[in-house]
Design a protein that fits this description.
- By secondary structure, the chain is an alpha+beta fold.
- The protein is built from 4 helices and 3 strands, in the order βααββαα.
- The longest helix has 21 residues.
- It starts with a strand and ends with a helix.
């Protein structure tokens, strides 16, 4: 964990974001007190579900696989409604 003052963080904000993107957590202080923590964003749950579905295709029991296929189709339908070119 890295600690820097608000002034330092302000002057090098692009670097702070780059470090957070690489997994670093930065504690920002002002007047010796912690005022903020900047760190990597958590993985999007949708991305994790999509990865699970991709990994598990063909290896699920019949009932669960049917449910997963239905869920995939619902998502596709919703994406088509939201994004006409999807």
């Amino acid at each position: 964990m890295k600690v820097m003052t608000a002034t330092e963080a302000s002057r090098s904000f692009a670097t702070v974001l780059d470090e957070a993107e690489r997994g670093e957590t930065i504690v920002v202080t002002r007047g010796g007190r912690q005022i903020a923590v900047i760190g990597p964003a958590p993985a999007a749950p949708g991305r994790m579900v999509k990865a699970f579905l991709a990994r598990s295709a063909g290896s699920l029991d019949d009932d669960f696989e049917t449910d997963v296929a239905a869920a995939r189709e619902m998502v596709r339908d919703e994406m088509r409604a939201t994004w006409p070119d999807a």
